[in-house]
Prior knowledge:
The chain is mainly α. The chain has four helices and two strands; from the N terminus they run ααααββ.
Amino acid sequence: MESADAGIEVRDAIDRLEPDLAELIRTVHWDGFTVAEAARVLDLPSSTATSRYRRAREALRRSLAPDDGAIAREDSDGSHARDLRPAATPTSTPTIHAVGGGHKTAPAG
Length: 109
C-alpha cells in the first residue's frame, strides 16, 4: 500500500502547486511530453517552460522530502530524480531520464 500512498502524496503536492506549474508537470509527466514539446502544446516560450519546470520540480521535491528535511539531489543526467507520476504498480519505481531537450519518464530497470 506504500506505493498507493506515495501516489496520493504526489497528486496532492501537484495540486498545491501554482496552476501554471501544475499544468506543466502534468503535461510532461502524465501526458508524456518533453519540456520542449510541452512548451509548444501550452503555447509557452521554451525558456519559460524550462524555468517553470525547474521551479515546479524544486517545489515538489521540497514538498515530498522526508520529514528529516533531507532533499535528494539529482545528478546532471537526472538519474536521482524522483518520478512525479504515481507508481503504476507497488513493485515499480519509475525515474526521470533526460532525453534530448526535455525529460521522459520510464520505468526503472
